[in-house]
Design brief:
The chain is α/β, with parallel strands linked by helices. Helices cover about 20% and strands about 35% of the residues. Strand 4 and strand 5 form a beta hairpin.
């Protein structure tokens, strides 16, 4: 699939976790055309609940993401699922391409993709990650 989205995005935000959604919410409320590109695999998806997040201690991480998505959409931000593959500068705009061939033109890019855990090959570690084993 190769398609160009001709929407004049003010900003494309790579990453749909709490940082990316927070950026999208603020920008959308400021009347900027904001698109969040979310791979759908937040780092904390394995954990059953959050700790140390003001007003959300014990809250499920995926519920926090769902709440954030609703808030962004209510502020007229747009969320699409996909993985960014490249960003190329073309004069006064950027073109962001996804791994499935979609392309977006934007004035600005915010990278809020977070970290990815690469676990060592220790028997049982992956099954306990985010539950009995945390970093």
């Amino acid at each position: 699939m190769t398609s160009v989205d001709n929407t004049p995005w003010d900003v494309v935000i790579v990453g749909g976790g709490s940082a990316g959604l927070s950026a999208a919410l603020v920008l959308s409320r400021a009347r900027r055309r904001a698109l969040v590109l979310d791979s759908g695999t937040p780092r904390n998806r394995f954990a059953p609940h959050l700790h140390g997040v003001l007003s959300r201690d014990g809250y499920a991480p995926l519920d926090l993401v769902a709440d954030g998505q609703r808030e962004v959409r209510a502020a007229d931000g747009v969320i699409e699922f996909g993985t960014a593959a490249s960003v190329t500068r073309h004069g006064d705009f950027f073109e962001l391409a996804t791994d499935d061939g979609r392309r977006y033109r934007t004035s600005r890019v915010v990278v809020a993709s977070g970290l990815r855990d690469e676990l060592p090959a220790v028997p049982g570690l992956a099954e306990q990650w985010g539950r009995g084993v945390v970093a």
